[in-house]
Amino acid sequence: MAAGNIWKALLTLLLSLKSAREMNCKSKMSFIKVDDKSDFSFHNLPYGVFSNPDNGRRRIGVAIGDQIVDLSAIKHLFTGPELSQHQHVFDQPTLNAFMALGSGAWREARARLQTLLRADEPTLRDHQELRARAFVDQSTALMHLPAEIGDYTDFYSSRDHATNVGIMFRGKENALMPNWLRLPVGYHGRASSVVISGTPIRRPQGQMRPDAAKPPVFGPSKQLDIELEMAFFVGPGNRLGEPIPIEKAHEHIFGMVLMNDWSARDIQSWEYVPLGPFLGKNFGTTISPWVVPMEALMPFVEPNTVQDPEPLPYLRHQDPYTFNINLFVTIKGEGMSEATTICKSNFKYMYWTMKQQLAHHTVNGCNIRPGDLLASGTISGPDPESFGSMLELSWRGSKVIELGRGETRTFLKDGDEVTLTGYCEGHGYRVGFGSCQGKIVPALQQ
What 3-state DSSP class applies to 345? Predict the structure, then answer.
């Protein structure tokens, strides 16, 4: 065949493939209009718990565009082998029961939702009475915690963050502790103070020792900080004494949220030796309301960070489980007309993966339960603009963070509103997390 004919044949093949992809994409588009920049595209379909003025009962919903699909209204449409006997999970006020069903049920639910929401599927599109009951405007909804969180664990899995903090407190030669490159370091947090986005955060009080030559003092924290994190909800748990092997860890990871693990650095630095974080951390942890399923994130998976030294066998996995998620932090001070972005980071900077965190968490036989929350720890990258805490951005208060129009910070002031956002960028769509927002209110008067 002549060279010209070969190129013509290749061009014809490429055009036919392009046409097939476009037709396939069109067939999957929803009858619900979704803006290209919406976090809640047809490719996302995150789960949350909501109520609204017309119905104060807490229900499970799925976000698409500016709408929420009330799953309690369409539970009868989930008729597959995994869910036909478990439709009641969509009548619950939390996601715990659905999380407990496992990855087979999650995949089936997602596939069914994508079918029901397709532009060429009449079941929901053309049933006006059902549509009226099933769809709720997000603008009218009140969001709640997506699960009853029995336990909350916070890891410390960003090498850049751990190195920065280590340099500040121990010097460059001893930045990382000897165990850090060997295991995912973590601590148990306080589940009772995990709150949904929009909940005010009261400035904590406690003991501090600002002058090492003097006794400690008591009062409101003067070094209140943010921590840019992400967290995942656990699905099926494990029995006490039976670890989750890393080869099966992904079957226990339901989905992810944004997290701001607020930190009082001055309280923390005085109390944390020898047992670690306590009052400097347990006063408030904010999460975003929408749980993005792992299946929606898989198109954005990236190779894992090369780990040297090689972890012990129970922590090794070759399959990629690191994700390209763009992350942002803004601060809007009281009286400021607009928010200022102080951090641009990415989840792909993490050193330890979620699979490794879960395998390590249970390797000693610790049992986890549906709805447990496991957090990444502060997410920092290699560049100063990607540092995920004000401790790093101000380098322990030694330099100011510019907010514009004469406003500066080293740590948070009362009235500051902090917002975390994040999304994966596809071709003409996003898979996003909404926002994780909290405003600092003054400490209680003593």
Answer: strand
* pLDDT above 70: residue 182: yes
CA angle 111, 371, 436 (to 5 degrees): 85
Among residues 43, 76, 161, 250, which one is catalytic? 161
Element of type H or E holding 407:
strand 407-409
Q: What's the pLDDT tens digit per position in 256-286?
A: 999 999 999 999 999 999 999 999 999 999 9
Average pLDDT, the chain: 94
Is 161 considered catalytic here? yes
Q: Is 301 helix (H, G, I), strand (E, B) or coil?
A: strand
CA distances in angstroms from 131 to 5, 77, 116, 126, listed in the order given: 53, 13, 11, 8
CA 119/CA 122 separation, integer angstroms: 8
Nearest to 146 by CA among 253, 69, 232, 83: 232
β-sheet bridge partners, residue 118: 30
Confirm if 30 and 66 have CB atoms less than 8 A apart: no
pLDDT digits (tens, 9 = 90+) for 316-343: 999 999 999 999 999 999 999 999 999 9
Please say whether the dihedral angle defined by the alpha carbons of residues 157, 163, 168 and 172, taken in this order, is positive or negative: positive
Q: Determine the Cα–Cα distance for residues 91 and 71; give it in Å rounded to an integer.
A: 8
